[in-house]
């Protein structure tokens, strides 16, 4: 028992419409349940327990693909990174809606009549992310409910419900013609148009057209806490294929805001922040705000954030039906897709093609930013540099491109997003290894080969553009060098190592790109500076994951301003109204550092050993924190304390540098030694430090074993707690047992670990600041006065 609000409290609140945390807070200050009014009915007290006339299903979302070495079995250690929730009038309907809400390709049930029953039964016996699919497939291929219960130990009631879904799918497959009755019944079981199309051998658009002809559409029911006994005053809706809709008429023009769906690595609550602030801003503009989302962990799915809430999957089919229902009861100004991350952005073109007005940046503009050829042409017209790249259709192509642009190169499959499958390679053998090990390369599956800007400084820019004027909100300098995913890199605002000339060049480039793309609202652009030359890496014409950080650092509500620009306001008018500063760009108050939260200790290999704690071009962080102070050292120190544990004020530090890092690592090591920290290092690093006059104790590598006189290895120092900070930069991407053991041992013991030279330099500055003292605690309101 936990005498507190738990993770499931948020789920229960969204499932019932009963705001547990809000009521708990009132109870804590002396109210009794019968004194607290139910917000939804405005008639009943909180002492009336919620009554449900619907079914709610929650499914966790996993990101095991980000940790390929991790054991995918589910255990007592939580491994999910988010969740989706769905509401329906039956369990099959809610289950299938929840499964498509996860937004994972191939995660909806499959009804292929060919398959290996024995393999599916084996899969059903093991608790993994895909177990429910093995259960469904085993039942579909002929296994009985008792047999599947025997191997899976899942309650027969649930198995019987899944069997009913299979029976409906089988009936669909046997029909020569889809009648109104059969199609409607399939929709009542939660089947999407895409699933039905796959079963009967048609296109998704064919099923949608058939439903239009037969007038088969969902109605929207209301979560009211009382099973319709009292009238609900907060429109909190879910879809079902029944007869009576509960969507009320309205007179104000409405704007649909598409949320970000379930949290996952790369798309989390940062986007929910933008959606919520947009809802508040559009209410102020006298629009009816309509939120569409399926994530119970978010503020956007609170029943009182928007004027109307639809707890629905973020798919083309589901969003189109909501648009249709709202259009039937009042005017709709349009749909905002640029605030919820990649999920709504991916729906923009299909929605526009179906006649839905997209407000803000247009789908055509989004295409310019996302199409490598079009974006490259834009940069060329504007005389902006980008790293050289090529598209390889074979290993020979990849080798030729690598030799043309020069090593190191960044390689990735062209058909994945979000850094998946990316790797930095430094020579021919590493490139050959990547091609053979990590990807399928062919004319249908080319590989992108980019020149990698080694030791470059990467920067993130968030800005607003209204078609005429640019408001540059902030330029963030990444603390880790280019090559670390922007979501995993710490960053500082304002930048500390960028010249005034470079800042002016970045602003000019940002305005050229925003104008060239046709941005209307927020834009995020990633730059890199190498040897004084500015390169454009990519542009995203949407809210980025750094919008909440920048908004708090400069004291400007960027998401609110973006929503208003999307609906026609200018930056000039927002300056007049006080939403934006009266003149100029965003100005950071103090020094702010964003640090990533990484879940290394949550994942283990099958043998129980840890996964490697290495940063790279593929994002792995599951959250972030912010540190703020008057100096970089103190701000960085605060961010580390919040993210993964405080940096040590005294004691010993173990350092081990890859050969290519030995020169750059000297500065940080010297700072630590000068500040009074005792340094330990393995032979090669110890020699490099000693040659520069730095006092260091030589220790043996794990692979060398203890010395003849019992001298300790680096691993012994970590496991005994002798060192309180570990600095270990990796030797390329291949498996190196010494480095892996050092990093995983430090993670297991909660010892802070740094794997980049830039990270070491930042930590050294923070540790010097810690020893000097002078830290203060200041509220956000005081910073922003």
Quickly count the helices: 29
CATH class of the domain at 51-214: Mainly Alpha
Second-tier CATH architecture of the domain at 51-214: Orthogonal Bundle
Helix percentage range:
25-40%
CATH fold group of the domain at 51-214: Carbamoyl Phosphate Synthetase, Chain A, domain 4
Average residue pLDDT: 91
According to CATH, the homologous superfamily of the domain at 51-214 is Carbamoyl-phosphate synthetase, large subunit oligomerisation domain
Apparent shape: globular
- Output the structural class: alpha/beta
Uncertain stretches of 5 or more adjacent residues: none
The total count of strands amounts to 25
Side-by-side strand order of the widest sheet: 3-4-7-6-5-8-9
Radius of gyration: 28 Å
Q: Determine the strand fraction and express it as a percent band.
A: 15-25%
Give a short account of the largest sheet. 7 strands, mixed
Ends: how far apart?
A: 43 Å
Pathway: Amino-acid biosynthesis; L-arginine biosynthesis; carbamoyl phosphate from bicarbonate: step 1/1
Domain ATP-grasp: 376-567
Domain MGS-like: 645-785
Catalytic activity: hydrogencarbonate + NH4(+) + 2 ATP = carbamoyl phosphate + 2 ADP + phosphate + 2 H(+)
Can you give a write-up of this model?
One of its GO terms (molecular function) is ATP binding. It holds the Pfam family CPSase_L_D2. Keywords: Amino-acid biosynthesis, Arginine biosynthesis, ATP-binding, Ligase, Magnesium, Manganese, Metal-binding, Nucleotide-binding, Pyrimidine biosynthesis, Repeat. It catalyses: hydrogencarbonate + NH4(+) + 2 ATP = carbamoyl phosphate + 2 ADP + phosphate + 2 H(+). Belongs to the CarB family. Among the domains are: 164 residues, Carbamoyl Phosphate Synthetase, Chain A, domain 4 (Orthogonal Bundle); 64 residues, Dna Ligase, domain 1, CATH 3.30.1490; 139 residues, D-amino Acid Aminotransferase, Chain A, domain 1, CATH 3.30.470; 134 residues, Rossmann fold (3-Layer(aba) Sandwich), CATH 3.40.50. It starts with 6 loop residues before the first helix and ends with a helix. It is an alpha/beta fold and 785 residues long. It is built from 29 helices and 25 strands. β21, α24 and β22 form a beta-alpha-beta unit. It is globular, with a radius of gyration of 28 Å. The protein has a 7-stranded mixed β-sheet with strand order 3-4-7-6-5-8-9, sandwiched between helices. A 7-stranded antiparallel β-sheet has the order 18-17-14-15-16-19-20.
